[in-house]
Amino acid sequence: MTHLRLLLTTAAALALGIAAALLIGSSTVLSLLNQAVIYALFALGVGLLLKQNGMVSFGHALYFGSAGYVVAILLQAKAVPAEAAVLIAVLGLTALAFVIGLVMVRVPGVAFGMLTLAVGQMAYLTASRSRGVTGGADGMSIEWPSTLFGLSVNTLTKPSGMLILAWSVLVLGSAALTLLLRSRFGSITEAVRDNEERARFIGIRTVVPRAAVYALSAAITASSGVLAALNTGFVSPETLHWSLSGVALMMVVVGGTKVLWGPALGAAVYFLAKDVLGDHAQHWMAIFGIALIVVIVYAPEGLSGLIQRLLVPRKPKPSALVSGIYGGRVRRSH
Amino acid sequence: MPDYVLQTTDVAIHYGGVKALDGVDMTLERGQIRGLIGPNGAGKSTVIDAITGRRRLTRGKVEIKGEDVSALGVVERRARGLSRSFQRTSIFGQMPVRKQVELAAFKMGAPDPGADADDVLRELDLDELADVTAADLGYGQQRRLDLALALVGQPTVLLLDEPMAGLSVQESLDLADHLKALTQRRHVSVLLVEHDMDVVFGISDVVTVFELGRVIAAGSPAEVRANPRVREAYLGSAA
């Protein structure tokens, strides 16, 4: 995708979101869309980690819930303006994630997943039991001021306003990520993911790029946490629980990570299923679980991978076009 | 400035009581190709791992152009011009061919990584496959890509660990011819671990023979072929 095509796609996507927010009259539908978009951003963070680092996190709710708590605690203490609280939440958690990442990304495979789970659950238990600071299991309300970054909070928290805001963050965030992954940083992280040892032997220090991707994925997830806190005006320990990380991971698996928009597609499918199936079945997750198994078995690259496969036929392997294992194409010495 | 680009002095790697390498002294002169031969388990690949920093030394030292690099890691040694290929093909499977070679050139500090990558790809006849994802290449093409990743960025010393593994006799000879010309053109010194004796004796300037982690002989291909201990330990009567 060229820069111009990316620009046009981004503009079209923004226009689509704004049009949807203005044209959809039902606040129920808008609320559902808001949740889907906020969780799409959460899933984008988890998906980025899988796409660029090949790592599965069971504890990204740590950044989703913590962002809400940081904002809530700073606003309750009237320590800083709301804008600063939002920036501190996102940037502070990104910096923290980078430091944590420098240690955790050295741990391979399942052990990394278990580490993320352990750290996330530590935060969940801390929030649940620190009643004086976090409100404990009851959670805490967030005292948003009347304006945020010069915009009326009432307008932002209306379903249509929230959709425009969350959608814009998702679209612009995805565009920025697309540019970043096209850069040298994208190539380096791809190389480290594909073959860490070979990456070292071509001169790449592998820990810092991995930690940077981890921090970036935390930044995206923390942004979704701030949006969720703005949307609900409330934060509770459930936003830190591993089951929420599990839901985000399900969205990533359903949507796929081959392309950046895969996790967002997974989030849309998840909320659509929740809405449609939830009306007819109490245990709709069981049905969604079956759908998840079908996707894993028949489209292991997720729905986005399936769509790509259907739209763009795979080229024949070059090895099939030449004879012999060496291809018979080596020039004799000059 | 020393006349050698690589020197190992009393290099040893021990795993408990097992002596994978035990007191290896070896030099590599500028522009030289040194073949390393010996039976399986003799320590040939381990000496490459020791030189590149993949394995920690029990004792001894490794010098590149007179600088002791024994305490340095893989990345620092690569930055000093040490490059390698692997016994088992080691490439970036999900990346297009040119993208990964260009990345390797960039990390080696090539002034124009794109041009350097294109040169190497052309030299190894991979230029027409530049946009193909590496996992989709045939085995022989992947072997060449592994070599391209090692060769790009003007390394001083190239350590090749069985580059002919899995290739047919004719393909090995083709690659050997190509390799000799390529290393001369790119002014790179080579340590070559290879089981194909025709290749080793055909392109090496000097040959070192390993047995049980020690060097048992070294010299010109003719001297090594004639060495009775080498014939007994490795080459057999057919040599």
Count the beta strands of chain B.
Answer: 10
CATH class of chain A: Mainly Alpha
CATH architectural label of chain A = Orthogonal Bundle
What percent of the residues of chain B sit in helical stretches (DSSP H or I)?
25-40%
> How many DSSP E strands of chain A?
4
The chain-level mean pLDDT of chain A equals: 91
Give the low-confidence spans of chain A.
Answer: 320-334
Q: What is the helix/strand order of chain A?
A: HHHHHHEEEHHHHHEHHHH
Overall average pLDDT of chain B: 90
Give me the number of helical elements of chain A: 15
**Total number of domains of chain A:** 1
**What is the CATH topology classification name of chain A?**
ABC transporter involved in vitamin B12 uptake, BtuC
Helix- and strand-based class of chain B? alpha/beta
Strand order of the largest sheet of chain B: 6-7-8-3-9-10
Rg result of chain A: 22 Å
Q: What is the global morphology of chain A?
A: globular
Structural class of chain A: mainly alpha
- Number of helices, where a helix is a run of at least 4 consecutive DSSP H or I residues of chain B: 9
Q: Strand fraction band of chain B?
A: 25-35%
Summarize the structure.
The complex is a heterodimer of chains A (334) and B (239). Chain A is mainly alpha-helical and 334 residues long. Chain A has helices at 3-23, 27-53, 61-76, 82-104, 109-129, 131-134, 153-157, 159-182, 184-194, 196-201, 207-232, 242-255, 262-280, 284-298, 302-311; strands spanning 140-141, 147-148, 151-152, 234-235.
Report what the structure shows:
- The complex is a heterodimer of chains A (334) and B (239).
- With 334 residues, chain A is mainly α.
- Chain A has a single domain (3-271), classed as Orthogonal Bundle (ABC transporter involved in vitamin B12 uptake, BtuC).
- In chain A, 72% of the residues lie in helices and 2% in strands.
- Chain A is built from 15 helices and 4 strands.
- Chain A has a two-stranded antiparallel ribbon with strand order 1-4.
- In chain A, a hairpin with a 2-residue loop joins β2 (147-148) and β3 (151-152).
- The two termini of chain A are 39 Å apart.
- Mean pLDDT of chain A is 91; it is low at 320-334.
- The termini of chain B are far apart.
- In chain B, α3 crosses α4 (113-123).
- Chain B is of the alpha/beta class and 239 residues long.
- Chain B is globular.
- Helices cover 37% and strands 26% of the residues of chain B.
- In chain B, the strands form 2 sheets. Chain B has a 6-stranded mixed beta sheet with strand order 6-7-8-3-9-10, sandwiched between helices.
- Chain B is built from 9 helices and 10 strands.
- Chains A and B meet through α9 and α10 of A and α2, α3, α5 and α6 of B.
